[in-house]
Each structure stands twice: as structure tokens, then as C-alpha cells.
Amino acid sequence: MKILQLCKKFPFPLKDGESIAVTYLAKGLYQLDCEVTLLAMNTTKHPVAVNRIRPKLEHYKAVHYTSLNNEVKPLHAFLNLFSSDSYNISRFEDESFARRLRQLLRKEKYDLVQLESLYLTPYIDLIRDYSDAKIFLRAHNVEHEIWQRMAKNEENTVRSWYFDYSARKLKKYEIAQLKQIDYLLPISAVDHKKFRKLGYKGPSKALPIGLDLDEFPFQQVMPGEKLAISFIGSLDWMPNIEALNWFVDRIWPHLNVIFPNLTLHIAGRNCPDWIHNLKIKNITVHGEVPDSKTFLLKYPLSVVPLLSGSGMRAKILEAMALGRVVISTKLGLEGIDAKDKKHLLVANNEEEFIRKIRFCYHHKKHLPSLSRNARRKVESEFDHLKIAQQLVETFQGIPIN
What we know:
Elements: E1 2-7, H1 17-31, E2 35-43, H2 50-53, E3 62-68, H3 74-79, H4 87-90, H5 95-107, E4 112-116, H6 124-130, E5 134-139, H7 143-153, H8 157-177, E6 183-186, H9 189-197, E7 229-232, H10 238-258, E8 264-267, H11 273-276, E9 283-287, H12 292-297, E10 301-304, H13 314-322, E11 325-328, E12 345-346, H14 350-362, H15 367-381, H16 384-396
Helix pairs in contact: 1-16, 7-8, 10-14, 13-15
């Protein structure tokens, strides 16, 4: 099977959930003897020196990319208020990308063109004009829902209004594009139901994030370990910043009093200055770390205090695969059918986070089983080869027109 994979940013290094989802799926497809070609945007927001990392991209038959300045421009964002178009989408409409896509479709005959997120849908008409390939949309999020949730949580009235306005335009666009694809691949069963509720009636299947577990060394948390907490995530993604801000402002002051020796370690790419400059007792800001796995393995506990967002959290899967004890909101767990006090710990407000960290201190004998069960959960449901096999079987089951 010949696949053309389109991405709105270069999916390497593996610093965020989308890159992890894209890369491990491509690796799994390669292991199943599929021929995968990548065409990606190399953006100013997430620039990559592609030639330096080519040796790590051997799972692709060919790698193509174009440069894109996708920085938010305040004037353009303001003028977009008077347009029916979604500014979120228009930032990824680019003639050089369209030109390269056209060249590839003229040169090669693909069986499947996979759009990695809604932001590639502006190119559907071009694909139809130059290819008979099936078009699959892998929806990493219900995109408008992210903005709806941020609007709800935002205390600033103007920002809340803008988030809500953006969400409404993005929702209209998202629903319209669902009619243009051949197959929908939501990232989770939760999102699958949401797309159905939005009116999507076409063929679909939830296709979650998969991990190559050979790359994730399991390290069981032991009762005698000194407890410490990690937080890791892309710090240019607003839901992550919102989550971290909430945890540091509302929860950490209480934990500092109750557990004066407990430390919090923060890591993530594109860390803003205000986080780098935090001067709070027992908090260390590491910024972007060379390897997320090495970072996570240093600390037995990993917090995911998400209040908004959509899709699946790859960092939860990574932490669970490594045997860390994860403490997450229910929203953070969307798409991961993990049970409280069996695979991880669930906390949805300040009091519950404090209670679950107390549990870790006062019931340390349970930490090894949480650690083991977390790893087993990922092994049984999120192995990248199993996920890739599901995609191949899905494609093979589509009737030929």
C-alpha cells in the first residue's frame, strides 16, 4: 500500500503528542511493508533542521517539506473578525505546499492520502483533481472544542469572547469538511462519538496513538522512593499553559505546606519567559529537555492537570509506559480507558489533587501495582504495530468504486 502522509508541522523530534502519533504510526506502517511518503510544513513556530535528522526518518520512502511562516499576526487576526473564514485554518493555506503536493500527485500514484489533522483539509480539492487516492482524515482533536473549553475557562471577558468566536467559526468549518473525506479516523472513541453527534455519517474508526514500546524502558516505582513530581508538555499550547498555571497557582502552595520536601519539575518546548522566571519554592523549570523519557524516569509522579483541550494526551501514555504514577484530570484522560487507583490516579479539582498526592505518601505500598498496571495497559491497547495494522485492515475493507 502506498501512502502519502500530510502534516501541518514536521513530525520530528518527538516533542508533542501529534508528532508522536504521526511518527509511530508511520513506523508501524513501514514494519507492515507499506510505502509511506511524508509531505510536511516546516513552520516558524516549530522549525526543524530536516537534513540533520534524516537518519531518523528511514521509515519513510521519501521526505518532502516546504517552509511556512505560521506565526499569529495580530493585524490579520483582527481583520479576520470581519471574515467568515477561520483564521485558525487560513494560517496553514500555503501556495508552496500546494505546489509540492501537486508535483507529488502527478509523479506518484498513491492508494491513500492521510491528512494528519483538520488543518490539511484546504488541500482536499487539489488532491481530488490530481489523484484517485482515498482521503483519510486523522482527527487528532475535535478542534473547535479546544477553543470552546478555553473560552469557558478564561476569566478575561475579551479573550473569552474571542475564543468563543473562533470556536464557532472553526466548528462550522470542521463540520463542512467532514463531508469531503472518504474516511474519518478520530484519535479516540470519545472523539468518535463527538463527531457522530456533530452529524458525521460516513465511515469511521477510532485510531489512537501508538507507541513503540521497545523505546520505553519500564521502571517500576518502588515504595521506598523519594517522591517528586514532573510536568511535561508543549508550552506553546494554550491548554498546557492554562493547566500549569492552575496547578502552580491553586494547588502547589498547599502542597508546599503539607509536603515541604516535595519538588515539582517542569519541562517543555518553547517555554515562555514567565515560566522560566518562576521563583517558587521547590519548583525547578528545565525548559526543553533533550529526551522526555529520561526526564520522566527521574520522577515517580507525573501530573496532567488539563482543564481544556481535546484528543489524547501522548505524554500520559509515555509516562504510563515508563511506569510512572500519573495523576490526571478526567479531561486529560479522554481517549484512555484507564481506571482510578488501578492504572493511575484521577483528580479534577484542587482538593482531589491534594488528596491523591496524600495517597501516594500514605499508601506507598500501592505504587508498584499502579506502575505495573499502567505499563500493561499501554502494552495491551497502544502498541504502534497493532494500531498500524488496524489502519491497513480498515483501508483494505473499503469497497473499490
